[in-house]
């Protein structure tokens, strides 16, 4: 038996190190923490634009039309100067034998293009000048100006809103007379819907203010 024990050793018990290695390791990852130095966004780092850089449609239209008109005038003068030089005969050529190559269709097309560009540039500049003189910068300004000009003295004394209501009633009556009662009823229902939506919006604004 002693020899058998000597040649056949006992089964070795697992060491504690192997137990620890066999156990699964759980890795805990900590979520990234936001730095405490992060400051909230405020208007200090994104200031509003100064008054000089505020976009003005009328002024931009006026300046753009002026630059466009200057460019079209320069292009027209250059084309006329080129045509005048082409009409002059060269140095050792008599005037009766000078026959420059002329294409009537091409020249007519070029003249039409130059005239169109000049008219568009002048219209753009004049429109910008009128809008700048009347201090009209948006569609709302244009509507306000037209309403103020179309109201009578009595309506102006009543106020702008009263005049608008009278004008809307006249438009509804005209639509009902010309286009039919159905269209007039639809227009009246649409106006009432717009008035109710405006009243709801005013009510929500007052609740927020409270």
From TrEMBL:
Low complexity bias (residue ranges): 14-43
Any single GO CC term annotated in Swiss-Prot or TrEMBL for this entry: membrane
Compartments, as annotated in UniProt: Membrane
UniProt entry keywords in alphabetical sequence: Membrane, Transmembrane, Transmembrane helix
Keyword Membrane: yes
Membrane topology note: Multi-pass membrane protein
Source taxon at top rank: Eukaryota
Family according to the record: Belongs to the AIM11 family.
Protein name, per record: Altered inheritance of mitochondria protein 11
Natural source organism: Aspergillus uvarum CBS 121591
